[in-house]
Write a structure and sequence with these properties.
Strand order of the largest sheet of chain A: 2-7-1-8-9
Shape of chain A: globular
Oligomer: homodimer
Number of domains of chain A: 2
Order of helices and strands of chain A: EHEEEHEEHEHEHHEHH
Helix content of chain A: 40-55%
């Protein structure tokens, strides 16, 4: 059985990564990795769906047992990507999506050199700003913070394998799926088929 | 305007390259390059559609004027890929298909390093043989010749960028289109967008 692809989705805040990921699950049967965190659930968040909610002790124990592909601490909370789900799904031949920020993406690539790093962006800087503004209910300070973060992230875009514009959602989802399909068709991922073909033709 | 992709389709005889190419034109708007040849038209063949039919003098004149991306002589006939059509279409941002055998594909790659070399195959060696048999009207000698040629070609499969199985036609056409879409999304083909994004975010 062919192993699945590990698809890392990053991108600016508000650019629609989450919606793209959801569509890849619904339309193309991708498996979405759920992160673990020590922060408290917000209203409406479901354990095992939005996050795996863990105590700090549980989280640290998982770190000790190599239970995370990567983890990081933001402010006073831990966030991590559980290893078992990702590896089980890949072995089953499923494509797995991780939605993760830039530094986490690079840490994952160190362990999974075949991971596809895809950066989702908007058609222009102006449009990125529009989307950062969100529903127009944020303070000037929050918006400035998001803009600064976007500027930081933009400096790392050229470390990604693929840059995909989310202008039309369906198109964006198709494009992301295309880079995963293309990876499966790469010659280096079909050496067994080539070998079988050569051997098979010899004995015909 | 983004340049189009140059898609080179090769594959074993009978594997359906021509049908795949036709579907890419119909469903996805690709431009299909038409070869020039000095051989006589067969019944039903249309000049400018199946081939551009040329006299030997005309053909040699085109060679002298660098009119071909590549050309070759088989038995006593010349075959060549006219340069102008391919370059005009690429400049217009269209994806161009060349259906061409292995050695021609490699000569084209030397001039167009971004060309996508896709080898179309069947799911198994046995199935390749079934398709070589065609309509069952060929002599044993013709079939053996085709098999020998397939064996030769199989030795070069690992020089291709992508290996795509034509089991289900629609799936195969989608897969070929995916590798072209993926090429357009490659980071290196979006450096302008990255630069504009960085500069644009700085001044917001």
């Amino acid at each position: 059985m062919k192993k699945g692809s590990l698809l890392i989705l990053s991108g600016f805040s508000g650019v629609g990564k989450g919606t793209v990921a959801k569509q890849l699950v619904e339309r193309y049967g991708y498996s979405l990795s759920v992160s673990a965190t020590t922060r408290k659930p917000r209203e409406g968040e479901v354990d095992g769906k939005d996050y795996f909610f863990k105590s700090v002790d549980e989280f640290k124990n998982l770190i000790d047992y190599n239970g995370f592909i990567e983890y990081a601490r933001y402010v006073e909370n831990y966030y991590g990507t559980p290893r078992k789900f990702v590896e089980d799904e890949l072995k089953l031949g499923h494509n797995v999506i991780l939605e993760i920020e830039v530094q986490g993406a690079f840490r994952i690539r160190e362990q999974y050199p075949d991971a596809l790093l895809v950066f989702i962006t908007a058609p222009s800087a102006k449009e990125i700003k529009n989307r950062l503004l969100g529903r127009g209910t944020e303070t000037e300070e929050v918006i400035q913070k998001r803009l600064n973060r976007a500027l930081e992230e933009s400096a790392d875009m050229d470390q990604y394998d693929y840059i995909i514009v989310n202008d039309d959602l369906d198109q964006c989802v198709d494009d992301v799926n295309s880079v995963v399909v293309a990876q499966g068709c790469l010659k280096d991922n079909n050496l067994d088929l080539i070998q079988e073909t050569i051997e098979g033709l010899k004995v015909l």
